[in-house]
Amino acid sequence: MIDPLLDLPPEALHPECPDLARLGPTPGEALLRARAARVEADRRAHRETVAALAEDEGVTTAGPVDGADRTGGNAGAAGVQAGPAGDEPAGDGAAAPRGVSRRRFLAGAGVAGATVLTRQLTTTRVSFGVDNGSGILVSVFLRGGMDGLSVVVPADDPHLLEARPDIAVRGGALLPLDRGFGLHPALRPLHELWNRGQFTAVPAVSTPEISRSHFQAQDCLERGGSATGAPEGWLDRVLDRLGPGTTFRSISQGATIPRALAGDQPSLSLRTVEDFKLQGWEGVHQKTLDALSALYTGLDHPLSAAAATTLEALGTADRLNATPYEPGATYPEGDFAAGLREVARLIRSDVGLRVACIDCGGWDMHTGIGTVDRGRMRDQLTTLGWALGAFATDLGDRFDDVTVVVMTEFGRRIAQNGSNGTDHGHGAVVLLAGGGLAGRTVHGNWQGLAPEVTDQGDVPGSNDYRNVLGEVVVGRLGLSPTDLATVFPGHRYQPIGVMA
Q1: How far is CA 190 from CA 66, 151, 201, 286, 390, in A?
Q2: Span 315-336, pLDDT tens digits
Q3: In terms of Cα–Cα distance, which of 480, 462, 473, 466 is closest to 499?
Q4: Is residue 104 pLDDT above 60, yes or no?
Q5: Is 205 helix (H, G, I), strand (E, B) or coil?
Q6: What pLDDT score was predicted for residue 320?
Q7: Is the four-CA dihedral 442, 445, 451, 457 of positive or negative sign?
Q8: Exposed, middle or buried: residue 26 (CB in 10 Å: 0-12, 13-18, 19+)?
């Protein structure tokens, strides 16, 4: 990655020490330090040039002329303008004795530094500022379309039992909720939260535009419930209304940023805090990090803000890693549980987290759902329930500051298919856990499963996703109902009652 740069001429490297071996423990680090020294020398020359031109014009410079603000502020000085190409400073045609062009400065910073940071910045987006609250939203998306009628079950509903003779979860096996519903026994940890008023559910949830296509339905929900709405994700618009926060204000647990966070609001993606590092630069020394910071400081470098806050995030991760994390609960095996463990770590570490996203796949069960005692659905729900239960236990009292929203792109058809599975349907179930909930009740409009109520063999979408999510961001994150017109454009918000 770095070796080709060693062929650069000596004058392009360190201004006083062309012997790279003396500058760092490795050739790569030595090169970065050399380029940082060259950029700093160029910056000094630029200051001298600007000062000389200003003196010739009888103008006093205002403040630092190199814009040495680590947030990437623009460079500038009174009486000095960029030339036609944004290159050399202009001034009565006077030649600058040691003039440094913006183009040369950016090239100097970019040759080595961008090589190191570019890959990081294409997978990691960062934010900066100060935290403006403490409530935390954790969005769990169950990819594949979870069958809500196997999870929050209308106990012994005759229409359900007739439609699902082989796969229905019978009332005697269910954990009791209210309004005639029961919870799948594999979700016992969530039932314990129900008894503490920290768990609730909303069945028959959808939006009018949900299709039976996984891709289209997920895209619709993550954009905010409308197939023709704003291009950003709904959580990106939430972050925009929240205003600035810490570097770890918004994170996606995994390798990529989900559609719900797509937009211009910065978010981090990471698998573990330990793995959050410059790719290929494990154990990099502080002098090299200082050099990276110097490379992107001043003269409105296009990556200055992102580079500075990436380095800030790396510094935060290093501080967290200095003390091994001891979770307050035993998590089950698997990526989903490991991801929740990392989210809990960030919450307990007080890094300013406000929004976290995590996915859990495997819910597209066209065949072999199984029975209450065995099968794919029981296995998936066991993982989901015990992971969320461990998350709540790990957080302890901090769980009161958190609301977990578990959603999926659509529900399944009421009747089982010929392979003892279920096909893509309409109304789904949303599960909610954490503090601030109106617990111990199942919320929303539920009219049963009689043929005259159902939607062509589907659970109807009697409750709009946007009302559930909107109520959570108002109650947990502190947005106003007026803000929701921006978060969910074109939707008239009507709270369902899930928040206390």
Answers
A1: 56, 11, 11, 45, 10
A2: 666 777 778 889 999 999 999 9
A3: 473
A4: no
A5: strand
A6: 77
A7: negative
A8: middle
